[in-house]
Amino acid sequence: MIPSLFRRDLPWQSVNGNLMVGLQSKDILNELALDSAKIIEAGKKYSFDAVHAFAMLQDKTVAASERNFAPALGIIEEAATGTACGAFLAYLQHNNQLPHQKQYVIEQGEAMQSLSRLYGKFEDDRVWIGGRALVLKNQVMTTGLQ
After folding, report:
1. How far, in Å, are 66, 89, 103 from residue 21 at the CA level?
2. Per-residue model confidence as pLDDT tens digits over 73-88
3. Is residue 141 part of a domain?
């Protein structure tokens, strides 16, 4: 019997346009290869813009590793997505999957060889996200919104 790739204890759920998809391990997460056209098609049908795949870690410092795919927005994969990370932490809190801590560290971008660390905390029922980044490329993106 082949073990499931997906976590069964967390629902697939769209949060702020990000479809949260829990995977069983970081290895599965890093090997993930998604079809951009199918993400766009499914997003139109089920009302999401990005797939936010993640694996919870047993690391005492880093809570989870994540990847964000948003081809409908012109982003095949992003190395650090603060807004999606905030939605992710709110999703975990809503599903009682976060230990009580002052701050959470989330990693993203490892599969792209561009590892980022995002830092999140809750204050007055709000999620605050921060981090450090290295600018590798400047790009202007047009969304069609005026």
Report:
1. 10, 13, 22
2. 999 999 998 999 999 9
3. no
Neighbours of 9 (CB within 10 A): 10
Q: What is the mean pLDDT of the chain?
A: 90
Q: Give residue 98's pLDDT.
A: 86
Supply the CATH number for residue 26's domain.
3.10.310.10
Give the chain's domain count: 1
Nearest to 129 by CA among 86, 68, 88: 86
Neighbouring CB atoms inside 10 A of 124's CB total: 5
Q: Which residue has the higher pLDDT, 139 or 50?
A: 50
- In single-letter form, the type of residue at position 33 comes to A
pLDDT of residue 144: 66
The stretches of the chain forming alpha helices (DSSP H) are 26-31, 36-46, 82-94
Are 119 and 131 spatial neighbours (Cβ–Cβ below 8 Å)? yes
Whether residue 1 is predicted with pLDDT greater than 50 in this model: the reply is: no
Rounded distance, CA 9 to CA 109, Å?
Answer: 25
Domain that holds residue 32: 13-131
Domain membership of residue 2 (yes or no) is: no
Instruction: Assess if residue 137 is contained within a domain.
Output: no
